[in-house]
Design goal:
Oligomer: heterodimer
Distance between the termini of chain A: 41 Å
Mean pLDDT of chain A: 80
Mean pLDDT of chain B: 69
Shape of chain A: globular
Order of helices and strands of chain B: HHHH
Largest sheet of chain A: none
Number of strands of chain B: 0
Radius of gyration of chain B: 32 Å
Largest interface: A-B, 46 and 35 residues
Strand content of chain A: under 5%
Shape of chain B: elongated
Structural class of chain B: mainly alpha
Distance between the termini of chain B: 46 Å
Number of helices of chain B: 4
Helix content of chain A: over 70%
Low-confidence stretches of chain B: 3-10
Helix content of chain B: over 70%
Chain lengths: ~180, ~130
């Protein structure tokens, strides 16, 4: 799998829109999934995902080939998320409030219940912990890839995962999230 | 997986259970093609817009470079020549302040013009602005 993205990225950097379309097709699930987990808002995540790919198209020439293409892409997505979050609520602490239910076409009871669970999990995590855990547990990235994607030292990524895991466990075992 | 399921994990919150939990955010994938189409429509629109930029700025950039060369080239060459001749015949102390002033003026203005033209050229040559 690795190497195809990178080859497409090199072609896209030379101006090939077909190659870029291939990159979008191959990575849209990753970026959208990551942003859904990060933002907890499906509609907002879709907009951010579009912005991420447009930014990637504008900056494809700056991709230096260090690390994987998908970690570079996730870094753009994370930056987009942080920028939007900063501009949207400079004052309010969105981290601590319960996230809105994710928009979904499914309306069966178990689906709603499951989403509430995830929302509650996300709500007890800091944005850094959420991003790190979303990449490692949601997108199957290695911790090294996650550190590249988020621009964080590997030790910090490990620490976020450890603390995030503790937070999730503590929140539910204490029943503070009900 | 529901909250009740989650609570039964107790202390056993291992990686596979976290993966299962985060998988809850996986939405339906059937709209993937629509997403790709939406992104590519914007990419095409952006590229078209940039192409218009390029069509407008390549001639402008080239014209500016030409203007800079025609306007400042002879003056610069003249001043450079006189400065070199003066330096050779009289040594550096013999170079007049006038020569240096003119050189600096022409050189500075020419440099700005050529830099601007170059910047426009770079912008125009790059498909993605």
């Amino acid at each position: 799998v690795n190497g195809i993205d990178e080859a497409l990225a090199r072609d896209a950097a030379r101006g090939s829109r077909d190659a870029f379309e291939g990159l979008v097709r191959r990575n849209q699930g990753l970026v959208r999934g990551f942003l859904r987990r990060l933002a907890g808002d499906a509609a907002g995540a879709e907009d951010l995902a579009q912005e991420t790919f447009l930014m990637a198209w504008r900056r494809i020439g700056q991709w230096d080939g260090k690390g994987t293409f998908r970690s570079w892409l996730c870094r753009i997505a994370y930056t987009q998320f942080l920028q939007q979050r900063r501009s949207q609520n400079a004052a309010s602490a969105r981290d601590t409030e319960t996230f809105r239910l994710m928009d979904d076409t499914q309306d069966d009871a178990s689906g709603v219940e499951a989403r509430i669970d995830l929302d509650r999990v996300l709500a007890v995590l800091t944005p850094e912990q959420r991003a790190t855990m979303a990449l490692c547990f949601g997108e199957g990235m290695t911790q090294t890839e996650a550190s590249e994607a988020l621009g964080l030292p590997l030790g910090t990524v490990k620490s976020h995962i450890l603390r995030g895991r503790e937070r999730v466990l503590a929140a539910f075992s204490k029943g503070s999230v009900t | 997986m529901t909250e009740r399921d989650f609570q039964t994990y107790g202390d056993g919150l291992d990686d596979s259970r976290l993966r299962a939990l985060f998988a809850l955010a996986d939405g339906p994938d059937e709209d993937g093609e629509a997403f790709v189409a939406g992104v590519m429509a914007k990419v095409h629109a952006q590229a078209t817009r940039n192409s218009s930029w390029r069509e407008a700025f390549v001639p402008a950039g080239l014209a500016l470079v030409g203007l800079g060369l025609v306007t400042f080239g002879p003056g610069l060459l003249d001043i450079l020549g006189r400065t070199v001749r003066s330096s050779v015949s009289n040594g550096l102390p013999g170079v007049s302040g006038y020569d240096f002033g003119m050189l600096a003026s022409f050189g500075g203005i020419g440099l700005v013009a050529i830099t601007l033209a170059g910047a426009l050229g770079v912008v125009a040559a790059t498909e993605r602005l």
